[in-house]
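Need a sequence for this fold. Nothing fancy.
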């Protein structure tokens, strides 16, 4: 705090010495303290008064520090969620509900009807135990009560009552006239999270499967569960990786595709992968991963590495590996990520393979950043891109899913104070937000299996990667959230690069966009909006799976499927529902379909290019930063 006050005082001094007049002091106004008393004060208090003479610079700096420090401290307790934002949402809902007697009558009617349904179900269970059909079915994605043990009395009453109660609260928190859509979604989301805490599946004596396991093992499952809990708490307190993640490491059994780091700056390393075929396509592939993740999700184990698959199909592949930023990188902004990241990588690829156009590929936020770079290149008549591929990447954020619940002015101001304290957003904060989006899968089911059942879920390469998160620099992340998530500047033509506006409409390279049906981070209908922004050929592919598992879709594993269709420049727009109805379902991995699309837009195979001068072997040094 002293440093900030000193800086504010120095700023005032410099301003005065530069010729600017200091506002005259109002002599009629009382001094900070009577002069005789001031003379007796310690010099520190006298300095504080001098710092505030002629203005409120010192108090402004001090007040700003106090507010930011308080908000950052509270954020540590709330997981980065703003209490003010949630209070505002619940206040909006409560006020409008209180002034809507018609809605209240509907809720009373629903409560009576649900109570009658439950009483009727309980009566049927008493007469015919274990044979009554349920009065309410869980949602398709809710697997908590799928086991046969939940069909037996009295546990069937417990879970049926819980689901009816949960459904009533959904009715109570939605469709209240006058409540803003974001507040409605926030209240519904928060209420659902709170109710899920009290699900009968989370407690030993109300979970028949956990009770059965306890009887079978003589309570050893609870002993193992306690050991698991204590170990998890110890690892979390010590900043260690989750149990089992230590068995996976980049360069050892992850990110093992042979290659060299051919370029490095303060923000990223560029990896060139060694060719494995006698000939390669003349156009290289440059992959831009998100800066909030380690790049090797696209180069996991040898059997499910997209990079290795691309190289084996005869493509020269380059990959950006972002630095894990620290406090010294707090002032890196979006322009830095464009200039030192995407554009620097394009320049290196162009230097190593002169005269060749580039298949640019971006994943998640890396795809959004690549879209911005492609729009700026199109504006500047830079025609180095042969094609543009976007994996689960959004360019319009009006329907960005439940993540938008955490994006409003109050929440962003709170989050900025949290990042301001350290100079970055800690990976744990972002990981916590993502876990909340799928709390049943990532929080409660894990607790049930690890602590009540006493079982450890086997660690996989994808789970180990997910635990190897990165930080986000203060300025860059703040700009990204405000300009894109909050203001939607890219889609609405307000985003500036190098001082001039850009628009995705200017992109002329053909686009291959991939969405995932169960994506909670970049919902596929949001990704689909690229059709409305780009005035070029767009091939859209919808794969089964989620944000990560839907992208890591190796052909050797026969699971899932995909839909794909191409919209030419002259074709009419089809909305997501119509597109889904018309695009046929195909079985298996979507990777071969993308390879075929790239090959159709590539030249005839040529001898492999020479590898660039190596700084070190892949996976490089930045990916190993903790």
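Here you go.
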């Amino acid at each position: 705090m002293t440093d900030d006050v000193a800086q504010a005082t120095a700023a005032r001094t410099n301003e005065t010495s530069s010729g600017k007049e200091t506002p005259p002091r109002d002599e009629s106004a009382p001094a900070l303290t009577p002069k005789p008393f001031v003379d007796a004060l310690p010099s520190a208090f006298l300095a504080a008064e001098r710092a505030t003479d002629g203005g409120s610079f010192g108090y402004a700096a001090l007040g700003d520090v106090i507010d930011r420090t308080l908000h950052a401290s509270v954020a540590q307790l709330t997981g980065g969620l703003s209490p003010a934002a949630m209070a505002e949402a619940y206040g909006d809902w409560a006020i409008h509900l209180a002034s809507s007697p018609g809605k209240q009558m509907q809720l009373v009617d629903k409560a009576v009807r649900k109570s009658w349904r439950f009483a009727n179900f309980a009566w049927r269970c008493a007469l015919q135990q274990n044979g009554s059909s349920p009065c309410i079915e869980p949602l398709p994605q809710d697997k908590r009560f799928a086991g046969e043990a939940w069909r037996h009395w009295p546990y069937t009453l417990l879970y049926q009552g819980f689901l009816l109660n949960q459904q009533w609260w959904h009715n109570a928190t939605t469709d209240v006239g006058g409540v803003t859509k974001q507040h409605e979604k926030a209240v519904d989301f928060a209420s659902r999270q709170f109710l899920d805490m009290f699900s009968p599946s989370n407690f030993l004596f109300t979970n028949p499967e956990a009770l059965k396991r306890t009887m079978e093992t003589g309570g050893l499952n609870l002993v193992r569960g306690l050991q698991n809990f204590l170990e998890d708490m110890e690892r979390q307190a010590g900043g260690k990786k989750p149990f089992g993640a230590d068995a996976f490491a980049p360069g050892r059994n992850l990110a093992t595709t042979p290659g060299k780091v051919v370029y490095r700056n303060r923000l990223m390393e560029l990896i060139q992968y060694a060719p494995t075929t006698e000939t390669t396509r003349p156009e290289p592939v440059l992959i831009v991963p998100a800066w909030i993740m380690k790049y090797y999700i696209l180069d996991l184990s040898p059997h499910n590495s997209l990079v290795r698959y691309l190289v084996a199909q005869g493509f020269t592949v380059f990959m950006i590996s972002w630095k894990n930023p620290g406090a010294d990188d707090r002032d890196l902004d979006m322009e830095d990520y464009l200039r030192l990241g995407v554009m620097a990588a394009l320049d290196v690829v162009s230097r190593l393979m002169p005269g060749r156009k580039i298949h640019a590929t971006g994943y998640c936020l890396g795809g959004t950043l690549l879209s911005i770079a492609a729009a700026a290149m199109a504006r500047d008549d830079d025609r180095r891109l042969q094609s543009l591929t976007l994996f689960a990447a959004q360019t319009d954020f009006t329907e960005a899913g439940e993540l938008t619940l955490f994006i409003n002015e109050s929440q962003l101001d709170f989050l900025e104070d949290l990042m301001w304290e350290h100079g970055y957003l800690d990976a744990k904060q972002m990981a916590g937000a993502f876990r909340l989006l799928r709390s049943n899968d990532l929080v409660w089911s894990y607790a049930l299996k690890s602590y009540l059942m006493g079982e450890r879920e086997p660690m996989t390469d994808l789970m180990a990667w997910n635990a190897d998160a990165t930080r986000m620099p203060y300025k860059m992340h703040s700009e990204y959230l405000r300009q894109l998530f909050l203001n939607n500047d890219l889609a609405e033509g307000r985003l500036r690069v190098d001082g001039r506006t850009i628009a995705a409409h200017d992109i002329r390279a053909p686009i291959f966009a991939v969405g995932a049906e169960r994506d909670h981070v970049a919902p596929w209908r949001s990704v689909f909006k690229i059709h409305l922004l780009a005035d070029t050929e767009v091939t859209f592919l919808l794969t089964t799976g989620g944000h990560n598992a839907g992208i890591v879709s190796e052909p050797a594993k026969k699971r899932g499927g995909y839909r794909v269709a191409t919209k030419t420049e002259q074709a009419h727009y089809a909305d997501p529902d119509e597109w889904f109805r018309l695009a046929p379902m195909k079985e298996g991995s979507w990777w071969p379909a993308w390879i075929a699309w790239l090959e159709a837009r590539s030249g005839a195979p040529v001898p492999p290019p020479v590898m660039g001068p190596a700084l070190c072997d892949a996976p490089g040094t930045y990916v190993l930063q903790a």
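For context: Confidence is low (pLDDT under 50) at residues 1-48.
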